[in-house]
Amino acid sequence: MDEQPIIIKRKKVVAGGHHGGSWKVAFADFATAMMAFFLVLWLTATASPEQIKAVEGYFRDPIGFTEGGSPNPVDLEGSASVINEASPDIESSQVQIEDEVVDELSETLEQRRMEELFQELKERIEQNQTLQEFKDQLLIDITDEGLRIQIVDRSGRPMFDSGRAELKYYSQDILFELAKTLGSVGNKLSITGHTDATPFKGRPGYTNWELSADRANTARRALVAGGVESAQIGRVVGLSDSVLFDTADPMAPVNRRISIIVLNKRAAQGIRDSAGHSDEPLIDLTKPTEEDRQQAMDKLESGEWLEPKPEPAPGELNW
Fold first, then answer.
1. What angle (nearest 5°) sits at the alpha carbon of residue 119, between those of residues 118 and 124?
2. Cβ distance 174 to 134 under 8 Å?
């Protein structure tokens, strides 16, 4: 007898059948949508015309709010306060500050920069062998014009030979070392030459005024050679013995000095203003009068300007 295959039938049972919970999710979505719909109807029914216009503007242009919309167009009485206009998370600051306050802040920052430069120079003097050797000839202070560095003569160790504008080799080394720091700042520099009260008798017509100006220019050339930009020089002056360092002893070697000032912005601007010119000067002595013009024209037409001029007598000045 042939064996019959055994067939096992398994009945698939659906848990819950029509009693499953998937319909609840769909009903919850429907209920949420209906609640949102009725909420919108209630808000539009109670909103003022201005608020309705704001809502319109939002839906027409939700990014730019060009129609006057707002992120909070309707006040829900007790909710977050309604803001007047949209603003970014980080508002761009456009605070207006009075010019006087700006000037005070600028001067404070510049004063701090001068103090930092003062400390930097002190550290350089302590660390640099060349400057350390001649630090007794360096005087540094802060004035109304800026940071001032004075290089003075000492007994037996002058910056220049007597009556000459050529630097001693060690004076040149000092200026080269200072130029490394001064060239790194953006401020203008003022260079002033001073002498003592001893009258100069080396050449006729050449006085302490010319000598102090020549020495200031020599210091300028050394600073430029050491790294200072030519455009950074704002003023070169020779003051002779008009501003003595030691007023009690006008002949003292300390009066023979070179002053280098790192000018603050106010002092630099004052130099530019004092040296500037207006479009219409108050007095213009270079402008010829009508009579001068007529005399010049008469000479030109008569040919008088072609006649040879007599030579000046010996010792007579022709200017």
1. 100
2. yes
Question: Lowest-confidence range among 94-98, 154-158, 231-235, 284-288?
Answer: 94-98
Q: CA–CA distance from 303 to each of 236, 265, 307 (Å)? A: 46, 55, 8
**3-state SS class at 234:** strand
Handedness of CA 292, 298, 299, 301 (dihedral sign): positive
CA trace torsion 21, 26, 29, 34 (10° rounding):
-120
Residue appearing with tokens 């002779």: 240
**pLDDT tens digits for 109-142?**
777 888 888 888 888 888 888 888 888 889 988 8
Three-class secondary structure of residue 246 per DSSP: coil
Cβ-contact 239, 192 below 8 angstroms:
yes
Beta bridge partners of 148: 141, 261
| 199, 262 Cβ separation under 8 angstroms | no
The angle that helices 99-127 and 169-182 make with each other, rounded to 10 degrees, is 140
C-beta of residue 194 within 8 angstroms of C-beta of residue 168: no
Among the listed residues 29, 139, 50, the one whose alpha carbon sits nearest the alpha carbon of residue 131: 139
What pLDDT is stored for residue 57 in this prediction?
74
Q: Which residues contact 212 (CB under 8 A, 6 or more apart)?
A: 192, 193, 194, 195, 238, 239, 240
pLDDT per residue as tens digits for the range 249-271: 998 888 889 999 999 888 888 88
Rounded CA separation 261/149 (Å): 6
Tokens of 165: 């504008």
